[in-house]
TrEMBL record, chain A:
Protein species of origin: Candidatus Methanosuratincola petrocarbonis (ex Vanwonterghem et al. 2016)
Name by which UniProt lists this protein: NADH-quinone oxidoreductase subunit D domain-containing protein
GO molecular function: ferredoxin hydrogenase activity; NAD binding; nickel cation binding; oxidoreductase activity, acting on NAD(P)H; quinone binding
Binding residues annotated for Mg(2+), in chain numbering: 53, 329
Annotated ranges, domain NADH-quinone oxidoreductase subunit D: 126-294, 302-368
Cofactor(s) needed: Ni(2+); Fe cation
Ligand binding (Fe cation): 75, 365
Chain positions recorded as Ni(2+) binding sites: 72, 75, 362
Amino acid sequence: MTSGEKRVEIEKELSFGPVHPALIEPYRIRLFVNDEIVEDCELNINMAYRGIEKLFDGLPVERALLIAERVCGICSHVHAWNSVRVIEGGLKIDVPPRANYIRVITQEMQRITSHLILFGHAFEVVGHETFAMRSFLLRESFMDLISYVGGNRVMPSVPIIGGIRPRADLTESLKRVILERIDEFEEKYKGYVARIIEDPLVMSRLTGIGFLTKEDAIKFHATGPTGRASGWDYDVRTKMDEYKPFDFNVITDESCDTKARIVVRALEIFESLKIIRQAVKNLPEGPVVNRSWKAEEMDFTTALLEAYRGELMHSYALDSQGRIRNYKIRTPTPTNLAAMEHACIGDHVTEAILTIASCDPCLTCCTRAEIVDSGKSFVLSDLEIIRKYGWRK
Amino acid sequence: MVMEDVPLFVLGLIASSIVAAAIGVLYSLVLPGIERKVQARIQQRIGPPILTPGFWSVLKFGYKKRVDPNAQMPGLYRSLVYFGIGIVVLLFLFTTPYWWAVLGWGSILGIAGLLKLEEVLYVLMGSQSQSFLSTGMPVPDIAKGSKHIGIKREFVEQHSGERALKMMAIGSLPLYLALLVPFAMAKSTMIRSVVAMQNPGYIMSSNWLSAPLPSSPVLFTLPGILAAIVYFVGYVMLLNEKPFSILKAKIDLIEGGVLEYASKLRAYYYIMRNVLMFALSSIFVTLFIGIPFDPFMPVMMVLNLALSLLLPIMLAALVAFSPILTFRQIYPAAIGLSAIGVLALIISLGV
């Protein structure tokens, strides 16, 4: 602590997790409090290290896709899509427009399910079971639609290199079903959002806590809805060629609190519906996959995509036999972690957990570490990292 | 009462207590199921079978393998739940007619005293319990690189104990204010007078099959309705149910001080909580409607049992539509409700 910084008196420490009924993933929250007020926070991850990046090494690029999709069960499509975008960008593989449209449709459908999971979790944390259950009930419409498109609710496996799987192509009847279902969903969802906004008890729990200013959001690299709820107008979709045909707004909120993070996601669902409608109505005719490509040596290439929780990065290189080398994934959560720790400060203990939940962490996806020492890259287990470098290095 | 009547009275007291306690405890085991069923229907779920949450779960925990608590003084921690059952059963018995004449226990003092004792239990439970789910978790928190090394590290249950103390200080105040109103209207501290004011037929009746109904229930007066509203919210606070379940908020303190009660102890804790739910509902029917739980007048007893469903059903609706409030909302809510309670009290004194 420098002499200019304000000294904070800490009365005690309260710690939760990694085994705790309210934490849906294994992580450790240490709150340093004075009475009920959080003065500092420490989030410790790396409780469920899977070494998934190491699994990619040496695999043929087509097989790697199957692993990429399994990085996360909620964001499965976005990982699969971004994984193929790396090689499509690196080897300049053309993707048919129809395939791009269907990728976008699946992406936005899964964005809606992801945001609805957050509402379910956030309202569970708020203690409002009815809103939590309604959210999961609403989500079912889109889980069904994802399964109609991809054949599976959780792992739809829509993208492949050069396009989409032919079975994921949209028939006329499926297009009609999608349009009907999203109309029904929108009506129910509007009622749901109205009930939340009109509930004074719920709004009193969400408003005025978990402040994260725009400057702090940028300083801590908060991405996705967490950053946009602090007024930071940043959305990777606006820079992506795949999204250029669609008219949609980037939702931001200047309130910078927990309510803003919920509201931004609530409004983003309407934008996703708008995109899906445009994509289904204007779906171009033509092939859905371009198979005229060959895996060959590729330099280290990076692709960015707006995942449901923020910016997602995938990057890898291919060797001369078309096998993957040095796969790196940066999910949105690592960049949001510092923002979460900061946003908790000043909250009551019970509110701090809600603030963390409102940033929508996905800790198992983000838990990975690779050490680059003297130019040689290697992966260590948690225990080895702690033994060699100490905790939190 | 003449000296010759004393043995007969004691006999009646014992018989009445046994019947009342048995019926009260058995009936209380059904209430959580009804509450959960109503809550589930509001949430468009089927919900559990009515006997499962109160009855079968108690039976199930009774047969679970014994797990010793890791509390600082395990013996004391275990005994607190037995004290709790004793307190809530006595609380219920004090409102039954035979106890009205015993040493003034059937009065506002008896009820308020026992309720306060029940609240103190949560402070003691919180200070004792030390589950492995927080500080005790084998995670290298204070290893190299950690923030704030060397400060006091508290178990979540101890924090729950601190919250229980705050709730004792302010959260339960509205309930006590509401309890005072019927007594203020009867201008007496005795339950008998409160019932006599509302239901003179019952006090004069000697026929065990009769069903004298109240002529002027407190509930249907202005101070009575205000006090009933405040009593209901106080009831929710005392039961630590949403929106006032801050001492056992699942999201941070998990179950609070009762976290380490496992197997038989958890079964006893459920019995304690269920009987408290019933006792407070029965007290409401006795004091605000004028129908006491009389084990020797079956119709009055059944009426009291039936009307005792009112508060748990209202509780279920409230729980289904409420989030957990933090002290940021609880303090203003408790102050506002206390103000309504004081207003009801002032009006009742005028009446």
